[in-house]
């Protein structure tokens, strides 16, 4: 087992510096344009694929880093470049984690490479759990998956919403209800292969921030997928449902559902994204505060400005430490007995929102314009307290875990 250390090893430092270079030279200069265009930055994704950043191999290497720090270090650097473009580059990873968390080895080997495509022909993937009436309340999900035994096919019907890459993806991973009696315990995840009839894109959302990342509804009408597209396979599902029914009869012991397994694994990674955005805004603010003069001196000469910067940096470092702890725990198999994954996401996302707001304030009128990147960073940061479980839901998870009380 990897010893815990806060010092990155040579390999990690090399990867961090390489990603930082890509974020600085390729992502950051393209950020304003794709934010305005509100479109998926395919040329930047392709560039990332050419140098090996947008690939299964790259994510697998970071994912299997024995210290757990591979993914958070990578996310922080890419999102330091720009959150919208970085989400377009890493959004496929959420679908990939959905397959890694619930799929068989064969499914992992078959579908994850197809999610990324090749540098010549890049593809993206989507993870579709949220629905118009089932956001935080995952148990209210209505999309149904019904097994057609005669054909060994699953038939999916329903409407998904807020899906990153929804409709423009090749592979869609769709969470659906297989047993409505069991609430969120009766869910399962399915692969919908590229070009499957019946899957279409609904409305594409015009967003406040991360506008270079495509977010849309996904409509499923009589979508038929082979039995082999049920993640984990039918036997495992039947066993899991039987256990859940048994536990429901005995009185409500907790069983993990398919979407939750994905979210638990990805929350510290979202925290790392938030740290990247916060750090980017802090750096712009620090630079501005030392060069902008008012009253005959740099504005950082005022404690009112300098202390804000001190607090910003302190909180960013604290957020990173929570993220690294949770990532290390997840990788080294330590259970989140105090909801450490949720803690890291909660704190880092709140810090990103507050630090980017402070950066706008430190830049004054300039901070409020699109001439300076903190305006975009502030809009982007608002997503972190919403997706992958809102801050309120993280607090629920933490409070329930700590107290054992089913707080509502
Ligand atoms: C840009 C973007 C990308 C996304 N990408 C994906 C994706 O790829 N795949 C996917 O499946 N989903 C995705 N989502 C969906 C996202 O995870 C949901 O928006 C989120 O879970 C919140 O659900 P909701 O929007 O329905 O809000 P609601 O659940 O309606 O919540 C509204 C408000 O009520 C609060 N609230 C709700 N219940 C409680 C409670 N019990 N206690 C206290 N407060 C509560 C919430 O915290 C929130 O403040 C994305 C969303 C966005 C905006």
From TrEMBL:
Signal peptide start and end residues: none
Lineage, top ranks: Bacteria, Bacillati, Actinomycetota, Actinomycetes, Kitasatosporales
Domain of life assignment: Bacteria
Transport listed as a keyword: no
Keyword terms of this UniProt record: FAD, Flavoprotein, Oxidoreductase
Record-linked Pfam families: Acyl-CoA_dh_1, Acyl-CoA_dh_M, Acyl-CoA_dh_N
Family: Belongs to the acyl-CoA dehydrogenase family.
Name of the featured protein: Acyl-CoA dehydrogenase family protein
Residues covered by the Acyl-CoA dehydrogenase/oxidase N-terminal domain: 10-115
Residue span(s) of domain Acyl-CoA oxidase/dehydrogenase middle: 126-223
Cofactor(s) of this protein: FAD
């Amino acid at each position: 087992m990897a010893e815990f250390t806060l010092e990155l090893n040579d390999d990690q430092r090399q990867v961090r510096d390489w990603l930082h270079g890509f974020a600085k030279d390729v992502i950051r200069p393209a950020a304003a344009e794709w934010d305005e265009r509100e479109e998926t930055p395919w040329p930047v994704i392709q560039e990332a694929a050419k140098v090996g950043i947008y690939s299964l191999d790259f994510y697998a290497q970071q994912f299997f880093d024995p210290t757990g720090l591979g993914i958070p270090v990578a996310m922080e650097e890419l999102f330091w470049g720009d959150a919208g473009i970085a989400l377009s580059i890493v959004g496929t990873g959420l679908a990939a984690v959905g397959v890694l968390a619930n799929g068989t080895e064969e499914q992992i080997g078959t579908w994850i490479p197809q999610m990324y495509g090749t540098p010549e022909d890049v593809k993206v993937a989507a993870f579709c759990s949220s629905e118009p009436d089932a956001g935080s309340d995952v148990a209210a999900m209505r999309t149904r998956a019904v097994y057609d035994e005669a054909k060994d096919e699953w038939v999916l019907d329903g409407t998904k919403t807020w899906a990153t890459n929804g409709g423009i993806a090749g592979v869609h991973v769709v969470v659906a209800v297989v047993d409505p009696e069991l609430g969120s315990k009766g869910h399962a995840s399915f692969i919908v292969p590229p070009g499957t009839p019946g899957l279409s894109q609904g409305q594409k959302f015009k967003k406040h921030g991360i506008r270079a990342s495509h977010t849309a509804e996904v409509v499923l009408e009589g979508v038929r997928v082979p039995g082999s597209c049920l993640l984990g396979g039918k036997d495992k599902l039947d066993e899991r449902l039987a256990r859940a029914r048994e536990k429901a009869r005995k009185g409500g012991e907790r069983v993990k559902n398919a979407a939750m397994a994905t979210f638990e694994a990805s929350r510290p990674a979202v925290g790392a994204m938030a740290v990247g955005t916060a750090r980017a805004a802090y750096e712009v603010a620090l630079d501005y505060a030392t060069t902008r003069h008012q009253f005959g001196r740099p504005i950082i000469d005022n404690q009112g400005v300098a202390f804000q910067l001190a607090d910003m940096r302190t909180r960013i470092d604290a957020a990173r430490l929570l993220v690294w702890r949770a990532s290390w725990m997840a990788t080294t198999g330590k259970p989140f007995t105090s909801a450490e994954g949720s803690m890291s996401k909660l704190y880092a996302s709140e810090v990103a929102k507050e630090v980017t707001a402070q950066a706008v304030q430190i830049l004054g009128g300039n901070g409020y314009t699109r001439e300076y990147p903190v305006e975009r960073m502030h809009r982007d940061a608002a997503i972190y307290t919403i997706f992958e479980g809102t801050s309120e839901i993280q607090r629920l998870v933490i409070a329930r875990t700590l107290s054992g009380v089913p707080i509502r």
